[in-house]
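User: Sorry, folds how?
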Amino acid sequence: MKAVVFLGPGRIAVRDVPEPAIQAPTDALVRVRMAGICGTDLHAVAGHFHGLEIGSVIGHEFVGEVIETGPAVTRFSRGDQVMASDFTSCGHCHHCSAGDNWQCSERSFFGTGIAFGPALAGAQAEIVRVPHADSTLHIIPRGVSDEAAILVGDNLATGWAAIERGGMQAGDVVAVLGGGAVGQLTSLAAQAGGAGIVLLIEPNQQRRDFARVNGAVTATPDTAKASLDRLSGGRGADLVVEAVGAAKVLSGAFDLVARRGTVISVGAHSDLQWSIPLADCFTREITIGFAIGDSIRLRPKLLRMISAGILDPTVVVDRHVRLGEIAEAYDQLRLQRSMKTVIDF
């Protein structure tokens, strides 16, 4: 089968690889109809994640059709049209039962080496093996597009997790650092959740324009503090969300957050250490947190919101490509000339 494989830092290619097979009774095989390219994939291709071996299939966002199931799979059958979380969970341990699926000891993250658990072949392939299928997969509801389902599987779930973990209340001032797909969907999630003002901070003019069209106030990193002071009466943001995955950007959040405010990072970080302004955070009683977009927990809620027309995550999808265009598509995303690209199989 055809798949996108990692050839070393900065290098990918489409190659013929062996088709996956059922390895455990809880596995399913899914024939991919559409896959997404994510900022996390850019980190993986750049070589930021540990244990991604040469020849590994990359990618972690996909929808498709179930073509085979292991004998222990009870929720899905051949022919079912499904979406997937970007990671697997067993569905029955203490953490999964509490809705903290990301903390499952049997978690694997598609297409990212061993950075987040045991290595698992990625989703930018014609067929994907899905461990713990009963938990990892979900039927695509009628009326929900493949693009929307892919975004619920990762980017939208991440944006919603940010405001959920940040304890956002109706009327709050929210600042979002980063105008990629996750940042834009965090903005939309905050608006849907009742934020009073959303300020999206992004150096790229096109991404700022997009955010304005979709309900946010915008600023560059250089003008962010002045803009936020004007919007909040000098108080700062109740919630600042870092959606880039860069330590320097995360550090900048502390200049924007209000006293007793909250900073949440949902960017995919690979740095092993990071310094914070400890005394200042203590004095101002700043809450600092990190959040993973747990689609397994959040997708029922998000799919209802999409079906009801409260959220339309597909506005961030600006490009469809075929496998033969994959190298150029990754380049365009890396250069910020595209926001969200999906691969049609």
User: Anything to note?
Assistant: The radius of gyration is 20 Å. The chain has a mean pLDDT of 96. Residues 199 and 217 are 5 Å apart (CA to CA).
